[in-house]
Specification:
Length: 286
């Protein structure tokens, strides 16, 4: 039986790494020159929420849910910019290959998207410069200073195994033609399984490391689907009804629907291998 300190150590190490990423990336996000800064900060927020989720049943961890809520608030502001960037980049890349009837409304749409993106950035900067963000960082540092008190209710390997069972159950229950929300739920569960498995991989060994590598690939594939959905929904919302807009919508959204079909086919090909990796990782942890 590991000691309390040994049980909590991987979680504290993960929290320190993620808080460090938040601190390191925030100045670059404010400047806005490096496009990689914002995605890295957003990933750190998501990892923090997942890691805190794994430790919230520990004695003395009542404040964790409040922290996760505040991180969700920060993640939403980062996500608005990310979505606006995603759609703007997509339309900017495709506007020159649109059919003639769609080019004029395409240029008009791009101007609208650039305005939306600027507004999302303004909101994010106000978020980072307001009083709530430094309070959140202060609370995170307090958690790092104290750490979870007492033993966690289950080992990291057990937590990872429980998350993986949820993934398998969700995939098994998928219909032949799953809705976007159903695939999104699978992706969320895959992400939680990955974030739970990463701290445990060092203790479990190579099978768990291979499993994490395969989960990353599946997560990337599944990430294509919500991106396509974000673009489709955003375009439905902002494309106006003026001349040429119907042709524009048909082309841009049609391309995203094809992308979603390719993603599902890729997921179906990859899933059996990931399932095998998961079984090996669990047997290695037993």
């Amino acid at each position: 039986m590991p000691s309390d300190g040994e049980t909590a150590a991987p979680i504290l190490a993960a929290l320190r790494a993620q808080v460090g990423t938040l601190q390191a990336r925030a100045p670059g996000v404010r400047i806005g020159r490096d496009p990689e800064e914002l995605p890295q900060m957003r990933v750190a927020v998501r990892r923090l929420r997942a890691t805190l989720r794994a430790s919230r049943e520990a004695p003395g961890a009542r404040a964790v849910d409040g922290l996760r809520g505040e991180l969700g608030w920060l993640g939403a502001a980062l996500g608005q910019v990310r979505d606006a960037d995603l759609v703007t980049r997509y339309v900017a890349a495709e506007v020159n290959v649109l059919s003639t009837p769609a080019r004029k409304p395409g240029a008009r749409l791009l101007r609208r998207l650039e305005l939306d993106r600027a507004q999302a950035w303004d909101h994010l900067l106000a978020t980072l410069d307001g009083p709530r963000y430094p309070r959140l960082m202060s609370r995170l540092k307090t958690v790092l200073g104290k750490g979870p008190r007492g033993a966690l209710p289950e080992s990291l390997a057990e937590t990872a195994a429980a998350q993986w069972k949820k993934v398998c159950r969700a995939v098994k229950n998928l219909p032949a033609r799953p809705a976007a929300t159903e695939l999104h739920e699978v992706r969320v569960k895959v992400k939680r399984a990955r974030y739970a498995a990463e701290p445990a991989a060092g203790a479990v060994g190579r099978p768990a490391e291979r499993f994490v590598e395969q989960v990353k690939r599946i997560q990337d594939i599944l990430g294509e689907h919500p991106d396509a959905v974000v673009i489709e929904e955003y375009l439905h919302h902002v494309i106006d009804g003026r001349e040429g807009a119907h042709a524009l919508e048909q082309q841009l959204i049609g391309w995203q629907r094809k992308r979603r079909k390719k993603m599902r086919a890729a997921f179906d090909r990859r899933w059996p291998k990931l399932e095998r990796r998961g079984r090996k990782a669990r047997s290695g942890a037993a």
